[in-house]
Amino acid sequence: MSAVDKDEAAAAAGEYVLGLLGGEERARFERRLATDGRLRAEVAGWEQRLAPLALSAEPVEPPPHVWARIEESLRAAPPRAWVPPVRSSRADRRLGLWRAWALGATAVAAVLAGLLIVRTVPPAGPALVAVLEDQGSRPALLLRVAGGSLSTAPIAALDTRGRVPELWLLPGADAAPVSLGVLEPRGRSERPLPQQAELLAAGRSVAVSLEPPGGSPTGQPTGPVVYTGVLVRDEL
Amino acid sequence: MARVRAVSAAAREGNGEPESAALLAAVVRGDSAALSALYRRASPRLFGVALRLLRRRDLAEEALHDAFLKIWQRAESYAPERGSADASLATIVRNTALDRLRRHGREIPIEDTGELEAMLEAMEQPDSEPMHRLVAMSEGQALAACLAELEPEPRRCILLAYWLGYSHEELAQLLGRPLGTVKSWVRRSLVRLRHCLER
Fold first, then answer.
1. Could you say which residues from 30 to 59 on chain B have a Cβ atom under 8 Å away from some Cβ of chain A?
2. Which residue in B75, B161, B162 is closest to A224 by CB distance?
3. Is the link from the previous residue into A79 a cis peptide, with omega within 30 of 0?
């Protein structure tokens, strides 16, 4: 990377972190982030470099009800177990939080689906893709459902911290998440579609949580949700 | 004397990184008491960040709430080698507040430029509390030194954008400068900061 390119990347990433990019400029930058690991690192670097400006803010004691509300929200909303998880068929508040994170990534999905190298047989039903993003809205994992196979490819190395990534489908508003199986954290996964395949449809959300080795012991997510996405038809 | 005490207190706050990192590691293991301890330690500064951006207590409270949910949920994705735990917390809170600012617009506009001038003066004079707090943090010293190397108006752009969430257009309007000038000031200043911090 030339010195000029490095400076350009530094300036663009800095503007993004400062929050100066708006609307279309911001969307364009985020599309660049999707495929440019160095740019993502540059963004992370600026966040760290400028953080002392935030940390040197004048401290203001927040009122006690703020913590009370945080506790209440966390208690009401697994998948990250705040208290031992209770199996429940009604999961609206949990799903409310999930929905808040499920980011539409339709345009990006169409572009990035081409990056999947895994071959699948010609599809029987419509092929579906999803780009799963982290909570910083950075693309992390590609998912493709086609021709009886479900395949995944990480965009950058999945950070699993010694736990096991498990893929989940949210079939609808009142339904509990359905496991689509444990993923290979380092490379691509491919497996035949699980029995719940008929639940896979465009518009449904998918997510990855981090589970103990072997996957969730309860059949429901027990660990933190790290990536979320939405299934869309693969038009390519 | 009061100033010396304030700086020492700030220094103690600023050097708490090992504690934050340890608490965050415990949060990763699912320790809810650790999250509570992290909140007790960090929330005054983090609330200050949100308040400065949103300038309304109720919105800043919501942002702090949302940010801590994210901190709990995202704890697994932290890695010490990626940077400081305190910095990561501050980043999440700032980004959450910035998102809200974008969605809802600036609730309390700074119409009176007199007020803005006073705020800026309070913020950027080397002798001011914010700069004292910045320098009192070991991680803040390099940044303070590099910021000092910038020209005053470009430096204001960086600080106004970071602290108050101003856009290019708002900066141009506030400083009474053309949009193109502000944009190139910011880009050049960022490049200079980057090089300076690399030294």
1. 30, 32, 36, 39, 43-49, 51-52
2. B75
3. yes
